[in-house]
Automatic annotation (TrEMBL):
Organism: Petromyzon marinus
Keywords, in A-Z order: Leucine-rich repeat, Receptor, Repeat
Transmembrane segments: none
UniProt-recorded name of the protein: Variable lymphocyte receptor B cassette
SUPFAM superfamilies, per the entry: L domain-like
Amino acid sequence: DAGVRDNLENQKKLPLHDNQLTALPKGVFDQLVNLNTLWLNSNRLKSLSAGVFD
């Protein structure tokens, strides 16, 4: 859907804190080309795969 894609491309901040995340797949942020602030605190992430932020 173009509307969702446009919204993702314009997203500048993404609060993902306090979600009990255990992994972030490679490419998960690929559509967030304008993202400049990301909150990941208070999750269960132990390591990040290569390419998560590419």
